[in-house]
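Researcher: I'd like a structural prediction for the single chain below. Treat it as a standalone chain; there are no partners to consider.
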Amino acid sequence: SLCFGRPGQFLVHNHRHAVHARFAGLGQAHRHDKHREGDTLECLPVSLEESQSGAVPTHDHRPADHDFLVGGISHLPLVAALALVAATTRDPAWPQMAKLAASGFRDTTRLASGDPVMGRDLLVTNAPNLQRWLGTYIEELERYRRLLGDISALEEELNRMRQAREAWRQQAGY
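Model: Treating it as a single chain, here is the predicted structure.
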């Protein structure tokens, strides 16, 4: 995983100990070992030689491609978590909902607990890609709204998305 950002404030992309080649060109990148929520993150220097030797896996994406990709798998989930917290906590029924909220709500909204300044910086610096992903996400939400009227199609979709997520988990080793 890479740690990068302003001095004293790091943004962590959980890419399984990977160093992105675009940062290796700076002569030094940083990585941290896989962590659990609540662990202290320790950023470790990774030399250019270490990243080029294969000792640390690399992802060779052009910066624009990287920004597009993380817009969908990192920045969009942050906005989704923020929007879910906003939609529920702003509702007059929130005090009652809060008493019922459990692990599903906790897990789905975890990203909303991040540093607001870091979140702002992340979203603003990748706004064009995030706007594209938000458009796609809104289209998917509307499609799911329509699927609520077709139980068979909804069940098929739930099965397809379960299979897609499980395939990703197996490939990524999670």
